[in-house]
Design a protein that fits this description.
The protein has about 400 residues and is mostly beta strands. The protein is built from 1 helix and 39 strands. The strands form 2 sheets. The protein has a 26-stranded parallel β-sheet that branches. A 13-stranded parallel β-sheet has the order 2-5-7-9-12-15-18-21-24-27-30-33-36, with no helix packed on it.
């Protein structure tokens, strides 16, 4: 059935639960439950454990120092978490501030703060059904101590279909990624999407990682985010493996001061495909390449357009690579469009642009309109972009007026 706990003056106005011996609040098979203004301190297990609840609303809550998860949602549909603080959860080392599994319908997290959980701050996963995830105007701070601990993991396993948005939120003092999106379970085959826009990320960790694996189809829009000091395999990292397909754009982001890390990275493995637009990004002071794409044997259609890269490959620990923008075809098929980019601050040991093909790679370079040229040359490449130096390794034919695919 339904019930409501209503405070009207912020956390604590709806009651205090302190030092409970198990879960502070446990809800099973409930419908249309609202908890407002509740404060939960030092629960011996979870702060709130809701199993198969429908229409749950958590508002103006403060949950601190739960030994289990701060909030755990298992099954059910349609959950809203608004204007709530979940601090220092998972003190047993296994719980997060927010753990959601098997939910369908909608998950809304807005105007909240999640801080200080040793196993990561939030995880949303399901293996069936459809779920819309909306995270907006929420602060994530001080996640787990390891690089594998993410502020928020969005995991569409099995045949689950997620429509996910992480927008206008802040991430700080992380060790792991800000956002990890993609399946973990073998055999996953669903179609899901991630929109990550207008977020602010500061300090180490804090990357956005898209991991397209197994037989999933992922659509992405990573745009207008500001990263300062974020690190990872790439501050924005996109991977396609198995027979997965990843399509979408990384656009209009600012990536600064990435330590030893590259700025924007895409990797495609045999059997997988990616169709990506990397456009309008500002990347500065990176440890490795500003933009890097590697095709290890899949199908890659990549357009890198109107990006600005300044002061790249600054690593002092051996992570520097090649160029402001570097693309590699080590197998499979690659179509590359590269134009209107501007590279500056290149050190003498590196180049502005690097394009390379090896082995059985079928690599073509977008040429529109068609010209009398047949192969990619340094003058042709520099004529399309701003910069002074480029490396081209291998014979790369021009497309003869044909366009590379766009997402």
């Amino acid at each position: 059935g339904a019930f409501t706990v209503l405070g009207n003056a912020g956390p604590g106005s709806g009651g205090l639960l302190s030092q409970t011996t198990g879960d502070a609040v446990r809800l099973v098979d409930v419908t249309q439950v609202t908890l407002r203004g509740l404060e939960i301190l030092d629960a011996a297990a979870d702060g709130i454990d809701a199993a198969t609840g429908n229409g749950l609303v958590l508002e103006d809550l403060r949950i601190q120092r739960s030994r289990g998860a701060g909030v755990r949602i298992s099954g059910g549909s349609n959950v809203e978490i608004r204007s709530s603080d979940v601090f220092a959860s998972g003190l047993l080392g296994t719980g997060r501030a927010l753990e959601v599994s098997g939910l369908s319908g909608n998950l809304v997290v807005q105007d909240s703060r999640l801080e200080g959980a040793p196993a990561g701050l939030a995880r949303v996963t399901s293996s069936a059904g459809s779920l819309t995830v909306n995270v907006d105007r929420t602060s994530f701070r001080s996640g787990g101590p390891f690089a594998s601990d993410a502020a928020i993991e969005i995991v569409p396993d099995g045949a689950a279909a997620f429509l996910s948005e992480v927008c206008t939120s802040s991430f700080a003092d992380l060790h792991g990624s800000a956002v990890i999106f993609g399946p973990e379970a073998a055999g996953s085959s669903g179609s899901s999407s991630l929109t990550a826009t207008s977020n602010v990320v500061s300090g180490a960790g804090g990357s956005v990682r898209v991991i397209g694996g197994f037989a999933t189809q992922l659509q992405i829009n990573i745009s207008q985010n500001a990263f300062d000091g974020a690190t990872g395999s790439g501050v924005v990292f996109v991977e396609a493996s198995g027979t997965a397909s990843v399509r979408g754009s990384v656009s209009d982001n600012t990536v600064r001061n990435s330590g030893e890390s590259a700025g924007i990275v895409a990797e495609v493995f045999p059997g997988a495909s990616a169709t990506l637009l990397v456009q309008g990004n500002l990347v500065a002071n990176t440890g490795s390449d500003g933009v890097q794409a590697v095709n290890f044997g899949g199908s890659l259609s990549l357009a890198v357009l109107a990006n600005a890269v300044d002061a790249h490959n600054l690593s002092t620990l051996g992570f520097a690579n090649a160029a402001g923008i570097a693309t590699y075809g080590f197998g499979g098929s690659t179509c590359l469009a590269l134009g209107a980019n501007a590279i500056s601050g290149t050190l003498p040991s590196f180049v502005d642009y690097h394009v390379e093909t090896q082995g059985s790679s079928a690599f073509s370079f977008e040429e529109i309109p068609d010209t009398p040229e047949s192969l990619l040359t340094v003058p042709f490449l520099l004529g399309l972009n701003t910069g002074t130096t480029a490396d081209i390794l291998g014979s790369i034919p021009l497309s003869g007026g044909a366009a590379c695919g766009r997402p």
